[in-house]
C-alpha cells in the first residue's frame, strides 16, 4: 500500500517514520517544514489541489494526518489559522481520500471534552470543547466523519516524545535550571508516548484493519495529574528540583483546559487487540532516549 503521512516532521509523524522502517509498504512523508536528514515531500494540507496532485501521483491508499495546529494557548488569538489547519484541512484530506477510495487515519484530542466528568470518557460521550483548539479539532473530526471516506479517528492526550516541544522536555529543562517550581495538581489525565501511538497506527495498517471506520481513544495506561507527571520526569532525569503542587488558577492561561480528560480505551483494545503500556514505563523509555 502507498501511505501518505502529513505533518511527518512533528512528534507523531517522526515516530511513525522511525517505526515504519522495514515495513512492507511505501511511505510518503510530507510536511511544510524540512528537517536535515529526513526526506520530506513538501505538502501544505491547506491546499486542496496540492493534496490531489500528491495523492494521485503517488496512488495513495492511506492518508495518516499528523499535521495540526497544536499550540493550544496561541489558538485562542489565531482562530482563523487554527480553524484552517484543524477543521478545513482535514476536510480536504478526507475529500481526496473519498475520491480515491483511500482510508484516512486522523488524530484528534481529549480537548474535545469539557473535563467535568469523573469517569473516563468513552468515544460516544458528548463532546463539549472549552477552547478554540478543542472546537476546531472537533470540527475537523466532523469534517472527516461527514466526508463519506473510510476513516479511523484516534483521539489522544498529553502527547510527548524526544522531538519538538512537549511537557517532558520543558520539565526536564526547567528542573535542570531551577531549584524549585510549581505544577498543577487539579488537571488529571493520561500521558501518551508518541511512539506507542505510532506503533498502534502502524499495527492497524500492517494488519489491514482499515475497514474499522470509527472513533477510538488512545493514551497510555494509568491516570495522573501534571504534578505527578512533572515529579516523575524530574526524578527519572536525576534532577533534584523541589516541585510543589498548585491550583490551575495560579497559572493563568489564555486557553481553558479540561480538569479531567481521561480517555476510556476499552474500544481500541477490544477492536485491535493492543496491549497499551503503563505511562511510567513509556516515560522511562522516552527519558532513556533523551539522555
Ligand atoms: N501535542 C499534544 O499534546 C497532543 C495532544 C492531543 C492530541 N494531539 C494531536 O496529535 C496530532 C499530532 O500532534 P503532534 O504533537 O505530533 O503535532 P506537532 O508536533 O505540532 O506536528 C505537527 C506537524 O504539522 C506541521 N504542519 C503545520 N502546518 C502544516 C500544513 N499547513 N501542512 C502540513 N503540515 C503542517 C507542523 O509543522 P511546523 O512545526 O512547521 O508548524 C508539524 O511538523 C495532532 O492532530 C494533535 O492535534 C496532540
Supply database-style keywords.
alpha/beta, seven-stranded parallel sheet, 291 residues, 10 helices, binds NADP nicotinamide-adenine-dinucleotide phosphate, two-stranded parallel sheet
User: Radius of gyration, rounded?
Assistant: 19 Å
Report the principal-axis shape: globular
Helical percent range? Answer: 25-40%
State the low-pLDDT regions, or none.
none
Q: Quick check: average pLDDT?
A: 97
The number of distinct β-strands equals 13
What share of the residues does DSSP label as strand, in percent?
A: 15-25%
Q: Distance N terminus to C terminus?
A: 36 Å
Bound molecules: NADP nicotinamide-adenine-dinucleotide phosphate
What do these coordinates show?
With 291 residues, the protein is of the alpha/beta class. Helix content is 39%, strand content 18%. The protein is built from ten helices and 13 strands. The strands form four sheets. A seven-stranded parallel beta sheet has the order 3-2-1-4-5-6-11, sandwiched between helices. It has a two-stranded parallel sheet with strand order 7-10. α5 (132-145) links the parallel β5 (103-109) and β6. α2 packs parallel to α4, α4 (79-100) runs parallel beside α5 and α6 packs across α8. The longest helix has 22 residues, at 79-100. It is globular, with a radius of gyration of 19 Å. The model has no long low-confidence stretch (mean pLDDT 97). It binds NADP nicotinamide-adenine-dinucleotide phosphate. Residues 6-7, 9-12, 31-33, 44-46, 66-68, 70, 85, 107, 109, 137, 156-159, 164 line the site of NADP nicotinamide-adenine-dinucleotide phosphate.
